Sequence to fold (437 residues):
Amino acid sequence: MSRDQLHRLVLDNGLRVLLAPNPVGASIGVAVHYGVGFRTEPEGRTGLAHLFEHLMFRGGRGAEPEGYLPRVQRAGGFGDARTRQDVTVYHAAGPASALEMLLALEADRMRSPCISARNLRTQTAVIDEEIRLMVRNRPYGTHPWALPRALHRRSENARDGYGETVDLAAFDLALCERFFADHYGPGNAVVTVTGAFDRHTAERLARRHFEDLPARATVRSPDPHEPAPGEERRLTVLDPHAGSPAVAVGYRMPDPVTERADYLAHLVLAALLGQGRHALLRRGPTAAAGASSLSVGCGLFGLPLDTVGPDLLTLFAVHEHERGAGHVLEALDGTLEALATNEVAAGQLRATTARWAARAMRELGDPGTRAQLLGLRETLFGEAELTHALPELVRAGVTGEQVSRAAARLRSSHRAVVRFVPGRQAVPRDIARETTA
Fold:
């Protein structure tokens, strides 16, 4: 695909608009990122950001009675939303003819979302069911949430994005309205449009639908940074639904802004360790013997540059017997030691970075995905261009020496290790308990 030309526009109310027209195809993507996530929640209000995402997804009052999604679907599109540590995004894709409708719907819910007692009750019940299905009654359901809880000490960094049911049950309309007023103003949002549209038409439509929204102050999000752990931290999770034991490992990543080159080297290191058939932990003398399933990635949810930090490099492996966790950790440590001592072979490095870059480029071929990623990096770093540049930065910009330094950094750092132990007893919501390292 050809690279989009990026055009920025800032409205008088502080709303940032990012336009990325591309003449290829006949579809568009629209994403609205708000600078609020589950790290922004007030103390004792876990799950509020995710709950509010559900409330907002219903749409604004102008979309009543049917709501946002049926209108998008009727126009031939689809929409969704998600909450992460530092951002919440509402995104849609559809035919180019739906551009004005999608922008109007986003402006409508930015102006006056349907926050009602009925909607609050409905969405609280929906999230309770999500917790039941995705966490409590699912094998390894507390992964990846147990890793930041083990590794971090600041409550903002250790949170479970779903929230605690006791907190969710206590939320009322006044709290939700305050959260909207504090974090959902136009000055805390980025609207991104990608795909087959005319730049000047999109700019005119953005002004038409968003410019009359009143500006308002935004409550600052907390600074997420904290000191690196001074010791290895371990948790054991008793999991009544797990058929086999498993182990998860989390390392602190370099800062994505001040240590960008080192961050990129960790992306390549993760790919070398566990991504693809020829990954070092899958075959060869340092393979993780006994692991029936293994994944390695960067980012709590597997997407790099998804947070301002602290970010994680994670490993998750299901193994065959109780001693398997030790074998996985030995294989991991041995591989890191070998990479720190001897640079990876040039051919393997080229193949790994080429595969990584090709996968990233394929993702950018979809205008809906492109809108989400461009808007994400613009919201977090003010660098939408990073999304387009990332494949080449990884493919041609990371050297074997940098990967060796990354391996040495992980080998010498203090990590979190979470063991998942099959257990038949009933387990409460907080099912991870700390054990000695």
